[in-house]
Amino acid sequence: MMKIEDLYSERVLKMRSSEIRELLELSQQPGVISFAGGLPNPNAFPADVINEIIDKILNSDEASTALQYGPTPGLRQFREELTRFVAKSHIKAKIENTLVTVGSQQALDLVGRVFIDEGDVILVGLPTYLGAINAFLAYGAKLVGVPLDENGLRVDLLEEKIKELKRKGEKVKMIYTVPTFQNPAGVELSEDRRKRLAEIAIEHDLLIVEDEPYRMLRFEGKELYPIKYYDDGQHVIYMATFSKILSPGFRLAYVIASEEITRKLIIAKQSVDLCTPSFTQMIAYHYIKNGYIEKHIPRIVEMYKRKRDIMLEAMEKYFPDGCKWTKPKGGMFVWVELPKNVSSIEMLKDAINEKVAYVHGKAFHVDGSGENTMRLNFTNPKDELIEEGIKRLANVIKKRLANSH
Ligand code: PMP
Ligand code: G9A
Fold it and tell me: How many angstroms does the Cα of residue 321 sit away from the middle of ligand 2?
């Protein structure tokens, strides 16, 4: 009998399944209150406006573009619009610096394809976004963790780490970071660390992958410049997505990088999917051009801020002593540290039995640590279910604590 294992590529052996994706089905079972997936709230989808735009597109000459294959880097008018859109985030870009991708998840994969050889080192936060970990591991990257604190990545420790790795002869290529309202920890990288990070990349000839899905979901505090702002144009690969501010179903994101890097990413994308769907690009183009996005984001921010407040208040009320958690100023996640003797992996079974879900924190740690941590999403559940979910989770934690003595 044929053994399929004998036929798999070596690459397949490096692939890992994503806890977030696997949990998605489980947490969508009836009655489960899910704090697991980083899903936007369905009430944040502007279905009416999208409907109007689609109607206009399909009843005009634009239909033939929207329904046709498009250029690999993206529709020209959409890329042009993107250069104006990112300028509002203090990023200077020409059309040649832009690439439209199928979600930023694809952008991460393309970066892996273009830059990673077996054993190349990528520095990441402890914790860091699981989807990036898995994308880079599939290309054989060696992921080295650098701790975070309440001001984001410990950039002071990062430089030491780079020197140490280089001394050992390691090929350090890249730093991957989510500076604003990080997934999963919810923390924001401070202004001085952003500047310093760009300097370090320039000094050490490294790339920074700056992944910014949550930049516009700010509830409070002053807006900071992206790391890309401090770049010399060569070192920072910036990416952002429309998943959290418009619709993840559109699968629409973009990369801003040097012309040279953009060109290589485009060639890589040619054999992945030829092009990003023209239809969603066209809709997003009109949505941005007509100023809808500017009006829409404050509505999402208001909704998510309220949900964050409900969650934090409930945690204060129900969580037992010995638990610590972040108080994010934006984004979609609260990060929880449980007492040391509580395993969030083992506890997940109890939680699912009690009909509440989260993502265990070890999944976000490249060094195998974080077993007593977990990530809670506050944007997807209905307001009235957040308190109930936290109450259930608090009881699960209390039971674990009682049994561990
Ligand atoms: N990067 C980060 C940090 C994310 O949180 C996410 C989605 N949760 C992604 C990338 C992927 O988003 P998308 O593919 O929907 O653009
Ligand atoms: O559904 C996904 O995989 C996107 C969300 C990512 C996350 O939960 O971090």
Answer: 29
Ligand 2 binding pocket includes 382 (Cβ within 6 Å): no
With CA atoms as reference, report the closest residue to 393 among 192, 67, 267, 381.
Answer: 381
At 283-313, the pLDDT tens digits run 999 999 999 999 999 999 999 999 999 999 9
pLDDT at residue 89 greater than cutoff 80: yes
Judge if the beta carbon of residue 40 lies within 6 A of ligand 2. no
- Does the pLDDT value for residue 71 go beyond 90? yes
* DSSP codes, 193-248: HHHHHHHHHHHTT-EEEEE-TTTT-B-SS-----GGGGS-SSSEEEEEESTTTT-G
* Domains, the chain, ordered by start: 4-46+296-400 (3.90.1150.10), 68-292 (3.40.640.10)
CA of 36 to the centre of ligand 2 (A): 9
Binding site membership of 38 for ligand 2 (Cβ less than 6 Å): yes
- Select from 100, 104, 130 the residue to mutate for testing ligand 1; criterion: most ligand atoms less than 8 Å from CB: 104
What is the pTM (predicted TM-score) of this model?
Answer: 0.97
22 close to ligand 2 (CB < 6 Angstrom): no
Closest CA to 354 of 312, 388, 396: 396
Residues 138 and 169: their CA atoms lie apart, in Å, by 22
Q: Is the CB of 38 under 6 A from ligand 1?
A: yes
Instruction: Give tens-digit pLDDT for 143-196.
Output: 999 999 999 999 999 999 999 999 999 999 999 999 999 999 999 999 999 999
* Opening angle at CA 129, ends 23 and 26, nearest 5: 5
